Amino acid sequence: MAAGQSAFHPPFLPIPLLRPPASHPSPPPRTRAPVDPFHVPSHLPRPTPPFPGPTLPPSPFLYTLSLAAASLVRGWSFPPPSPPPLPALPKPIHPDPQQHRLHSPLLFWQYTPRVFVYQLNEDGPEDDDEGEEGVPSYRELVLPAADLQGQWESLHYDSAIKQRLLSYATSALLFADRGVNNNLVAWNRVVLLYGPPGTGKTSLCKALAHKLSIRLGDRYLRHGCLVEVNAHSLFSKYFSESGKLVSRLFSKITELVEDLDSLVFVLIDEVESLTSARKAAVAGSEPSDAIRAVNALLTQLDALRRYPNVMVLTTSNITQAIDVAFVDRADIKAYIGPPTLAARYEMLRGSVQELGRAGIIAGERVIDAAVGVANGCGSSGAAGTAAAAAASPSASLSALLLAAAAACEGLSGRTLRKLPFLAHAGSPQLAQMVPCGGRQFLRALREAAAREQSDRSQLLSS
């Protein structure tokens, strides 16, 4: 290097490329896949502009040219390697689309918010004083009623029966308002809920009437009305009087229905007593007067079809005794079975929160573990996991409550509602501590469930 010459290159001068000597063999030419100058791979990031404002897509040709230059300088392969495959998405908890609302979040575009303003009726039901031998034939309750407030939310079912009933009522009202010919497209507005005792069939019917009276308050301006029929009072000791009592009852219901500004719900609990199969009467095992009662009921149900503001809600524990003609008239025939593990957990969780609000249990919050219950491998797998987790001294409240819900397998909803009281009453230590600890109460709740199972098995085996 000559004296006085700079020993470094200025930063603005390019560095000369070094060529290999002629004696060295030249490397083999690099082979690349053909480049489409107008193709922009979708998985590559786009440059962010240095100024605020909307992001504009760059020119496809310049973008591809810059990637090709970068591949020459840094030794990248072009086209760039494909991104790694995405991990497999977890399977949905409930593949049935009718059950997707149970344990999945509801996005804002999946619902339309509506606000309902209503006034609760503080008066209780009124009895009819014109029944046979002083026994009221029905009870009338003005809706919406304070006695039924919150009952719809307290009922938990794994099936979509609640949404099914609401959709059914909406469709029946729409068909009636549009004047659909009932002779061509028939709907009777009769619902039959059947299943074992204590599963909440009657409570669901009352809660449905309360819910619809609120939702349809702008359509029926006066009020809603729930007529609870006392089926046992419609049978008389006098021959041929039962059919007359049924006709007299429905004539009073017709007077209520004739006011088209009111919404009327007719609840017939244990409907098999009114609609017993007429085959048994022919065989001689039922009195012939029962045939007249069934015939009168079927005739009155057909007469109510021309009124759009009435719905008949019925329940039954013995479906084999119901006449086939009545079953054919029911639009919805839904089975209400015993509560599953997720439903039992929600029912017990609501009871524990109510005891915490009343100050009987210390104010410890039990988190919602319905998703964790659903992610378990069925009721038996979740029950074993819950029992193992509850055995730990530091078990969470949710694990203890899940173990108690798993111990209630086979119990009805009516028994589950009584279980928190029985747990508190069966433990003298809890009665002396007010408020008692949450973990102590949940362990007592599990013991009360095991005690109830033992008493029930001994009763059935004796």
Automatic annotation (TrEMBL):
Domain of life, source organism: Eukaryota
Record keyword Cytoplasm present: no
All residue ranges annotated as the AAA+ ATPase domain in the record: 187-340
Keyword tags: ATP-binding, Meiosis, Nucleotide-binding
GO BP: any one term: meiotic recombination checkpoint signaling
Disordered: annotated span: 1-55
Biased composition (Pro residues): 11-31, 44-55
CDD domains: RecA-like_Pch2-like
InterPro entries hit by this protein: AAA+_ATPase, ATPase_AAA_core, ATPase_AAA_CS, ClpA/B, P-loop_NTPase, Pch2-like, Pch2_C
One annotated GO molecular function: ATP binding
GO cellular component: chromosome; nucleus
Family: Belongs to the AAA ATPase family. PCH2 subfamily.
Protein name, per record: Pachytene checkpoint protein 2 homolog
